[in-house]
Specification:
single chain; 95 residues; mainly alpha; 434 Repressor (Amino-terminal Domain); 66% helix
C-alpha cells in the first residue's frame, strides 16, 4: 500500500485550490497553536497520557486539544505548558 505524503498534498492544495487556501488561512492561528502544542509535548518526550496525568485530566482531553477539537482557555494552555515544561508566549502582530 502506497504511503500518502500529507505535507505534499497540503502544499499542492495551497498552490492549486483557492478555496482550500482560503479555508486554511482562516484557521491558520488554530493550526499554529496545535503545532506548537505538539512540538512542546514531543520535545518533552511525553505521551498524551503523560501530559494528561500531569494536567490532572484524562488522555482524550489532551487528544481533543491537540486535534483542535476544543476551544482551549488560557488557563488550560498554562497547565499544558507546565505539564510539558514550557511557557506560553502570546504575541500580537499587525496584519
Amino acid at each position: 500500500m502506497a504511503r500518502i505524503n500529507a505535507k505534499a498534498l497540503h502544499e499542492q492544495a495551497m498552490r492549486d485550490d483557492p478555496e482550500y487556501r482560503r479555508e486554511y488561512e482562516a484557521l491558520e492561528e488554530e493550526y499554529n497553536l496545535v503545532e506548537a502544542m505538539l512540538d512542546a509535548r514531543q520535545q518533552a518526550g511525553l505521551t498524551q497520557a503523560q501530559v494528561a496525568e500531569r494536567m490532572g485530566v484524562k488522555q482524550p482531553v489532551v487528544a481533543k486539544m491537540e486535534g483542535g477539537k476544543s476551544n482551549v482557555s488560557l488557563d488550560t494552555l498554562k497547565r499544558y505548558a507546565k505539564a510539558t515544561g514550557t511557557k506560553i508566549k502570546v504575541e500580537f502582530t499587525r496584519v
